[in-house]
Amino acid sequence: MNITLKIIKDYPKPGVNFLDINPLLQEPKQFAYVIDELARWAQQTKTDISKTAIIVPEARGFIFGAPVAYKLGLPLLLIRKKGKIPNNPYSFHITNEYTSYDMEIDGDLLEKYDKFIYIDDILATGQTLASVRQALKNKGKEMVLSLHVADVPALKSLRDDNAQLKDLTIKVVLKS
Q1: DSSP character for 130?
Q2: CATH code at 162?
Q3: Model confidence over 87-119: pLDDT tens digits?
Q4: pLDDT above 90 covers what percent of the chain?
Q5: Which of 17, 23, 41, 51 is spaced 20 to 30 A from 6 at the CA atom?
């Protein structure tokens, strides 16, 4: 299926080429294709997914992770910005290509699961992914798979050099 994401130059800051998912969201057949692919890959993981939860970062990860969790009958855990989790927040820090900030996961829900499938829209430098994976490791949890709608090929070398991502299976639906 031919799906093209819109590139917005110099957003959110000069020198960054932002991949806009809005065109994809306006095409129900294309959106369904992406969700089906993410779900298919989640089902093919070597882990028992019946004991696995989907974990997604705010905000665009919610768009793709929620329908996959629904389709597979899996629990969904949200990663939110600090101050948005009302129940026993487990906080950790993220530094990515844009900024640095604190994120949270509901600590009580986190304790219920040992394995996680991470789903997000765009894989750029991999810093957000690495930070979430480390936060899970710090709690004795495992990220078994990372799924993304698209990636930024020009940043692949940064991802490849990140020791926290070395042994993680990462899949991307839309190849550039």
Answers
A1: H
A2: 3.40.50.2020
A3: 999 999 998 767 789 999 999 999 999 999 999
A4: 77
A5: 41
Domain containing 86 equals 29-174
In a domain, 95, yes or no: yes
**AA identity, residue 165:** L
Cα(49)–Cα(2) distance, integer angstroms: 30
The two three-digit tokens of residue 44, written as one number? 């093919």
Between CA 158 and CA 164 the distance in angstroms is 12
Query: Which residues does 39 contact at the CB level (< 8 Å), separation at least 6?
Result: 68, 71, 72
Please state whether the predicted TM-score (pTM) of the whole model is above 0.85: yes
Count of the separate structural domains present in the chain: 1
Structure tokens at 6: 């819109």
